[in-house]
Every structure is written in structure tokens, then in C-alpha cells.
Specification:
AKR, oxidoreductase activity, TIM Barrel, two-stranded antiparallel ribbon, NADP-dependent oxidoreductase domain-containing protein, binds NADP nicotinamide-adenine-dinucleotide phosphate, NAD(P)_OxRdtase_dom_sf, globular, 317 residues
Length: 317
């Protein structure tokens, strides 16, 4: 299996993983079990996805049945915005580990560079973006405090690697000014409608591994009813014709466009057939011209932008 070697630990992060956002809760344990049986070795979860317990059930069943050993599976999870204060980070990571039923994460990410007011998990979990009054409540916790608490997760063995998500260059460079343990992975929205070339270049320069999310662009947002009025990347002519040339599917071409450049992907699917199709995206090579031609689809279309929830959350402004 193709992997990305993480700089600090030398750990191997699979280039293709399984994304858990929107994986139906009632079938999540079975889907995760099937994903592992199909050959997935990376599970991308988050407290916010509300299915960590079910994903953990699927994982534990796969471990018990001998499909894999724990050290052969790379489990990623993420710290939610309401838990950025120093005293909350370890407690939440521990809670998330207990939901999964494992004793360490291979990778733990700060989900967004946004601190929101604490919500007691006994009151509401996952807390999402809003308080009980339906409003967003910001909290003045600087990233340095959160990052130091993330480093403590490595010290205590709760996380083997730590990283960030939804961060642009300026915040990454800021973290590097004080980091005792540098972020190892940057997980960001990245697809042919949002190619993020400058950010990719910066991450490569820094030796920061990139994981692309929402590789199928608007497709991942259709099920939420919040897709934009643009043609589906899965049917756009240039992608479809390149797929036909290689006798592959448009989905596989979209994934290969990233993985061939060393960018990891974490496609989500509730379907066993599509899940297998996505995992098989590294079995062919695009030409340089094909990669370039797909990149020309860029329109800087960002689908996951918290400023649409509240303009004070303009992290991509
Ligand atoms: N860090 C962050 O803030 C963040 C944000 C967003 C996502 N993520 C992570 O990235 C993962 C993937 O992103 P995403 O969920 O936005 O979307 P995605 O993987 O780009 O797209 C998923 C959508 O594509 C469909 N699909 C999957 N495989 C397909 C195929 N081979 N052919 C045609 N359609 C296919 C799925 O439908 P079916 O299920 O019906 O197959 C679903 O509607 C998430 O699950 C999550 O783990 C992270």
C-alpha cells in the first residue's frame, strides 16, 4: 500500500484512507468493518462526525476477527473547536479514545483554527458550532495554548502524530515559531475546483504532509443539500474523457490527481462498491499534461467555509 512517511516519527500514513464524515451512524460499524476488509488501512474520524463509537465498533470487530492488527491501522481523529483550552484537550482526546475503544490515535488534528466556548460533553456531544441559544460563541484561546496541549498528547502517548486542519500559511508559520513538536499533517479541502497551489507548495517546502478532503468537490455536499451551482466534478468533460482513456472512473481520476503528487486522500462512501473503487485509485498513472489539464478547472471554489455559518469565522478571508 502506498504511504506518506511522516517527517518526525517516520510513521507511514496510507495515501488512501476512508473518510467518516456523513457515514450513516446506524450502518457505520458495518461500513468500517467492510472498509477494512476491502483493504483500507486509514480511518479518518472526528469528534464532530458523531460516529466515533460506531466506527470504533467496526474497527474492534475487525481486530477481533484478525483482519488486521492495531499497529496496521492508522486512526485519525480531530479536536473540536469547543475544546481548545489547555485543560480540555487531553480530557476530550481521552473521551474520544474511549469512544473508539483504542488507547492511542495515530494522528490527532486541530479540526479548525477556531476556538469556541466550552460545551460540557455531558450536556451535548458533539457540540457543533452553536450554543444552546443557536448562536456562535467565540472564545479567546490562542492557538499556542491549544498547540502546547496537543504536544502534551504526544508526551502522554495519546497521539503518535499531531497536526492541523483548515489552516492557511500564516497560522502554520505562526505555530512553527513556538512548536516543540511540529505539525506533521495538514488536512485541507483540495480538489480541482480548489487547487490551493500556494498552500501545497508551502507544505511541501516545510515537509508537512497534506491530506486532501472533499476530493470529489461538490459531490460530498449534495447529501447535505448545500452544494453550489456548479457542474459535478464527476461528470465534467475533461475528467470524464481522461477516465475513459485510462478505463478508470472519474472518481478514480480525481483521487489520482492528488495521490500522484504525494497528497493523501480520504474519500467517503456509504457504498461497498464505491469504497472499493476509490481504494483502487493508484493502479494507473496520469500524464503530467493530464494533471495540468485537470488543475485548470480551478475556480477557487471553497465548499467548507465556516464564515458562511458566522462572518466572524472568516478563517479563509
Ligand atoms: N478536516 C475537515 O474539516 C474535513 C471536512 C470535510 C471532510 N473531511 C474528511 O474528508 C472525507 C471526505 O470528504 P467528503 O465527505 O466531503 O466528500 P468526498 O469523499 O469528496 O465525497 C463523498 C461523496 O461522493 C460520493 N462518492 C464516493 N465515492 C464515489 C465514487 N467512486 N463515485 C461516485 N460518487 C462517489 C459519496 O456518496 P456515497 O456515500 O453514496 O458513495 C458522497 O456523496 C470526510 O468523510 C472526512 O473524513 C474533513
Amino acid at each position: 500500500m502506498a504511504t506518506v512517511v511522516l517527517k518526525r516519527t517516520g510513521d507511514k500514513m496510507p495515501l488512501v484512507g476512508f473518510g467518516l464524515w456523513k457515514v450513516t451512524k446506524s450502518s457505520c460499524a458495518d461500513t468500517v468493518y467492510e472498509a477494512i476488509r476491502a483493504g483500507y488501512r486509514l480511518l479518518d474520524g472526528a469528534g464532530d462526525y458523531g460516529n466515533e463509537k460506531e466506527a470504533g465498533e467496526g474497527l474492534r470487530r475487525a481486530l477481533a476477527d484478525g483482519l488486521v492488527k492495531r499497529e496496521e491501522i492508522f486512526v485519525t481523529s480531530k479536536l473540536w473547536n469547543t475544546f481548545h483550552k489547555r485543560e480540555h484537550v487531553a480530557a476530550l482526546a481521552q473521551k474520544q479514545l474511549e469512544l473508539w475503544g483504542i488507547d492511542y490515535f495515530d494522528l490527532f488534528l486541530v479540526h479548525f483554527p477556531v476556538a469556541l466556548q466550552y460545551v460540557d460533553p455531558n450536556h451535548r456531544y458533539p457540540p457543533e458550532w452553536w450554543g444552546d441559544d443557536g448562536k456562535v460563541h467565540l472564545q479567546n484561546t490562542p492557538m499556542q495554548e491549544t498547540w502546547e496541549a496537543m504536544e502534551a498528547l504526544v508526551d502522554s502517548g495519546k497521539a503518535k502524530n499531531i497536526g492541523v486542519s483548515n489552516c492557511q500559511g500564516s497560522i502554520i508559520l505562526d505555530i512553527l515559531r513556538y512548536a516543540r513538536i511540529e505539525p506533521q499533517v495538514l488536512q485541507v479541502e483540495l480538489h480541482p475546483y480548489l487547487t490551493q497551489e500556494a498552500l501545497v507548495k508551502l507544505a511541501k517546502t516545510l515537509g508537512l504532509a497534506i491530506t486532501a478532503y472533499s476530493s470529489f468537490g461538490p459531490q460530498g455536499y449534495v447529501e447535505l443539500g448545500i452544494e453550489k451551482d456548479v457542474p459535478s466534478l464527476l461528470s465534467v468533460e475533461s475528467v470524464a474523457s481522461i477516465a475513459a482513456e485510462h478505463k478508470k472512473t472519474p472518481a478514480q481520476v480525481l483521487l489520482r490527481w492528488a495521490t500522484q503528487r504525494g497528497i493523501a486522500v480520504i474519500p467517503k462512501s456509504n457504498s461497498a462498491a464505491r469504497l472499493a473503487e476509490n481504494l483502487d485509485c493508484n493502479s494507473f498513472n496520469l500524464t503530467e499534461d493530464q494533471i495540468k489539464s485537470i488543475s485548470t478547472l480551478n475556480i477557487n471554489l471553497r465548499l467548507n467555509d465556516p464564515s458562511e455559518i458566522d462572518p466572524r469565522l472568516g478563517i479563509f478571508a
